[in-house]
Amino acid sequence: MLSAGKKAPTRKTAKKADKKPARKKGGQSAPSPQSGVDSEESARSTTGAPSAKPGHISVRMYNNILGDCFLIRVPAGPERDVNVLVDCGALQGMPSAANILNEIADDLAKTTGSRLDVLVVTHEHWDHLSGFCQAETIFRKFEIDELWLAWTENDKDADAARIRARRQKALQLLLTLDKHFGPPATAPEEDEDEAGRAPRGGGQRDEVRELLAFTGQSPGAATSRMDTGAILAMLKGLAKRVRYFTPGADPIPLPAGTPVEAYVLGPPKDTKFLLRSNPRKGEVYLSDESAGLGVYLAAAVQLEKEAISLDADEARAIELSMPFDNQYFRPFTEVEREQNEAYFSERDQWRRIDRDWLGAAEQLALKLDSDTNNTSLVLAFAFGAQTDRRVLLFPGDAQVGNWESWQQYVWPSGAKREDPAAIDIQKLLAATVLYKVGHHASHNATLRTNGLELMTHPDLVAMIPVREEFARKIKHWNMPFPSLLTHLLERTKGRVLRADKSLDDLKADRARRQDKPGELTQADWESFFSRLRFGPKSAHSDLAPLYVEYSVPLT
Question: How confident is the model over 348-388, as pLDDT tens digits?
Fold first, then answer.
């Protein structure tokens, strides 16, 4: 447990770091006192490399991506920061993704001296891993002391092996289904009874491929030289030590004696939590339900039976999913070989039912996406005295079952919940001063009653790694989800940092809110802005600066 009396280490260079340097020719000027915003130039150590703000833990969110890349820095002595990188990736198909991630990787190398004490990979999704492939040349030069992964990525864990096999089976089914999507078919104009029927096929394929973009294997996108599995294998080879974590274990101290501990909250070991991705009414900011895997298996098998390898449980699931007895089942490939002219006539193509099964593909893609999100390694970084504990919450893209499972843990091991010194999720959430919003603020990755509503700290700040225009106009996703964003703004009183917003956007929001009933005062806003640091202009995006960094006092 974090000692109540433990102090942050004193840095000999603190006074030098706080001084504003003289403006160099062609460089940035120091920020005006009115802005209350720190610049990178104002916090350079004597070595010339940017250092963390003395006496503070700093969280840097890299901007302009629909993906996650966060750098946490903790002062650990003169000229020494402990560097923790949490994920680095952008969604497949995002414009200029490779250029932006190389720009980010270059800044990470300069900021950390190409040294990471800890690299955290929350889960195996492209938008959390792609940067290590797209900027591979830069990352291969990094010295990585420890790689932190969830137990679900452990090759020696039998439960993890079953999860990976299930994930691969679902992906195989989706890729099989994708091959059978045909062009949209409409009823002939003369068939008035069927006129206006919605086209089928093409739209479903687009929706499935957009979800497959999270795996990095969308058939409609450019092929990458590495998939997510290969990226993880590369990182395991680069790290000096690979560690796998199970929730509920004793807190993990960060290296170099820094006064910060990481509580592991997820992913859960219990299957009933691990496979529960969709919420019940009132649990999040939208309710939804989905079916099991059987109907999805049936959809793929009826198209291409010989290409799918099934075990006994999966075969039984298909039987239970079928609307008729198995003796009447005929795979589509068999019907195709018969070349039945009546069934395959061009005029009656719109009447065919075989591709109606493909509607299951979208639900399977959603299930694959959600189940992988639920394997997210969830970390709560805690620091400060016991009476003034503060927490940075990094849930990856954890969904409902992952969040629900946190309720069962009590720290330290063996402690009873009623013990005043015991720590549980209610206390950690109440102490949360920074929430990395899960899954780009989608509708089902932030629990409501047992999540955001328990984040009651008056200094709560939220960071959302999102590119709204790309998410809405290109992917047709509701990100950030409006009602969730409204609640985040209410909880934080406007202190929401987004990867697609500039400093001017934040100032404009402050002007709309400041000094209104229930909102922050001018002094509160100045205190908030004094903890911010914005990076330089990005060379590949006009949305926002390269990064925004927020610092929280360690003591």
Answer: 777 766 655 555 666 666 677 777 888 999 999 999 988 89
**Torsional class of 26: left (φ above 0), alpha (ψ -120 to 50), beta (otherwise):** left
DSSP per position, 437-493: -GGGG-TTSS-TTTTGGG---TT-EEEE---HHIIIIIS----S-HHHHHHHHHHHT
Q: What angle do CA 7, 12, 14 make, to 5 degrees?
A: 85
Quickly tell me which residue has 């294997």 as its tokens: 217
Whole-number Å distance between alpha carbons of 53 and 531? 9
Burial of 534 (0-12, 13-18, 19+ CB in 10 A): buried
Residue type, 439: H
DSSP H stretches of helix in 67-157? 97-112, 126-129, 131-134, 136-139
Q: Please state the separation of Cα 340 from the chain's center in Å.
A: 48
Which residue type, as a one-letter code, is found at position 195? A
Strands (E), 426-510: 432-436, 461-464, 496-498
> Three-state SS for 403?
helix
Q: Give this prediction's pTM.
A: 0.79
> CB neighbours of 240 closer than 8 A, spacing ≥ 6?
143, 144, 145, 146
